[in-house]
């Protein structure tokens, strides 16, 4: 798109919205939002689908149509006066997180913006409109400038949830180059994690029940992959391959059984990193934890102040998501259906050409 001095902003735009009364995605014509304090307006270049979007459709935060999507990138087209001089200008390509109307300063915000005690805690795609629409309002404190010599905005949207989450999940394990990490769940998150892990100098073993996901993970650099459904002794094979087990097993799937089985591949004193959110409670052995058999960690997209480290690493190593690009907002219902049925082997995204 490039820098535009005075972009023409329409009064209305197209938005793919989940209607809780109809229980389906519909494309509506809605007003273009106006940026407020600490905000700018972004013309969306691409938006991608995440499993948590489906969770919100199953249990909507609101009883009115809401635009889903919290992974997006685009170009700034309008800046609120309160945001001028904050390091951004009209025309800038940006990626961003999805929190609005939070203070970024209270004790709660230091843990996660969902714990803010001073704001309304608006989340794009959940309790306010998200990014499967032509324009969206973004808090500048959530945003990062993206150099288009490095960043391909057609496929970059998943970085701003899936990518940052997977970077944090690996970075927080405290692993050293040459150590083994188990990627449990080799869908969109696991595929991004594989790229980050290899860039960190780690050895990767991918574990999944879908051969297509494992093949995609192998293409992205995994040192070994195992189908835990069809390989009865996969845990023994992994321990033999790694000399005792992986140093950390990171679970990206939302299947509770994956968490329950993960300790089988972790070496003594290793880490179990929780990322996926299963509907059922996961089962852990208190005795194993007390005796140091393994330790339990957890992470997420986290707070805006942690984002830049992930963005810088992504750009430095040229890591881009493995994305299946779809044309137009009318593609979203099919994307949702494929994710529900578990047949999508990559992240899917709508690109606004």
UniProtKB/TrEMBL annotation:
This is Enoyl reductase (ER) domain-containing protein. It comes from the Eukaryota. Keywords: Metal-binding, NAD, Oxidoreductase, Zinc. The lineage of its organism: Eukaryota, Fungi, Dikarya, Ascomycota, Pezizomycotina. Residues 21-319 form the Enoyl reductase (ER) domain. Belongs to the zinc-containing alcohol dehydrogenase family. The keyword Metal-binding applies. Signal peptide: none annotated. GO terms for cellular component: cytoplasm. Its cofactor is Zn(2+). One of its GO terms (molecular function) is alcohol dehydrogenase (NAD+) activity. The keyword Metal-binding applies.
């Amino acid at each position: 798109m490039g820098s535009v001095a005075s972009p023409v902003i329409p009064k209305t735009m197209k938005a793919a919205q989940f209607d809780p009364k109809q229980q389906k995605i519909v494309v509506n014509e809605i007003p273009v939002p106006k940026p407020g304090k600490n905000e700018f307006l972004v013309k969306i270049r691409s938006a991608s689908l995440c499993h948590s979007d489906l969770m919100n459709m199953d249990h909507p935060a609101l009883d009115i149509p809401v635009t889903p999507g919290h992974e997006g990138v685009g170009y700034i087209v309008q800046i609120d006066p309160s945001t001028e001089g904050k390091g951004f200008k009209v025309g800038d390509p940006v990626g961003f997180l999805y929190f609005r109307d939070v203070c970024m300063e209270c004790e709660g915000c230091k843990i996660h913006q969902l714990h803010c005690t001073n704001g309304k805690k608006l989340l794009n795609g959940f309790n306010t409109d998200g990014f499967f629409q032509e324009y969206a309002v973004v808090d500048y404190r959530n945003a990062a400038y993206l150099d288009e010599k490095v960043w391909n905005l057609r496929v970059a949207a998943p970085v701003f949830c899936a990518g940052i989450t997977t970077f944090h999940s690996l970075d927080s394990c405290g692993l050293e180059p040459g150590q083994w990490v188990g990627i449990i769940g080799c869908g969109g998150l696991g595929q991004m994690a594989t790229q980050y892990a290899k860039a960190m100098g780690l050895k990767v073993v991918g574990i999944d029940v879908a051969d297509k996901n494992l093949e995609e993970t192998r293409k992205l650099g995994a040192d070994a992959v195992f189908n835990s459904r069809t390989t009865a002794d996969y845990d023994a094979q992994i321990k033999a391959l790694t000399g005792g087990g992986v140093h950390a097993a990171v679970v990206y799937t939302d299947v509770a059984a994956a968490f329950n089985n993960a300790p089988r591949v972790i070496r003594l004193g290793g880490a179990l990193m929780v990322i996926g959110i299963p509907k059922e409670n996961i089962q852990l052995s208190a005795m194993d934890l007390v005796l140091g058999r393994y330790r339990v960690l957890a992470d997420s997209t986290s707070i805006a102040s942690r984002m830049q480290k992930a963005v810088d690493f992504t750009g430095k190593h040229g890591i881009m998501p493995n994305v299946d690009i779809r044309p137009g907002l009318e593609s979203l219902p099919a994307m949702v259906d494929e994710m529900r049925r578990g047949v999508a082997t990559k992240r899917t995204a709508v690109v606004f050409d």
